[in-house]
Write a structure and sequence with these properties.
Elements: H1 3-18, H2 20-34, H3 43-61, H4 63-82
Helix pairs in contact: 1-2, 1-4, 2-3, 3-4
Length: about 80
């Protein structure tokens, strides 16, 4: 999966909770902080990114809802990967 595809999938999942602009900005910023700059993103990089996003979501949504949203993002990424 490309980095831009992964960012788009995650932002789509996060947008209903934190808004589209914040979802895209947070996902892109965490990619940059984690050094995810290549065209393709590995499973390990995706997990690190989900971990960072989940930590931030804890503040806005609480731990339980944050865990639910991160699980939803994992399923959406897996579905996207399976559709290839």
């Amino acid at each position: 999966m490309t980095t831009s595809e992964a960012v788009a999938v995650m932002a789509k999942v996060l947008a209903p909770y934190i808004g589209d602009t914040m979802a895209r900005s947070a996902t892109a910023a965490h990619c940059q902080k984690l050094g995810i700059t290549a065209d393709t993103v590995s499973h390990e990089q995706l997990e690190a990114l989900l971990g960072k996003l989940g930590g931030g979501l804890n503040i806005f949504l609480g731990r339980d809802k944050s865990a639910s949203v991160v699980a939803e993002a994992r399923r959406a990424l897996a579905a996207r990967e399976g559709a290839r």
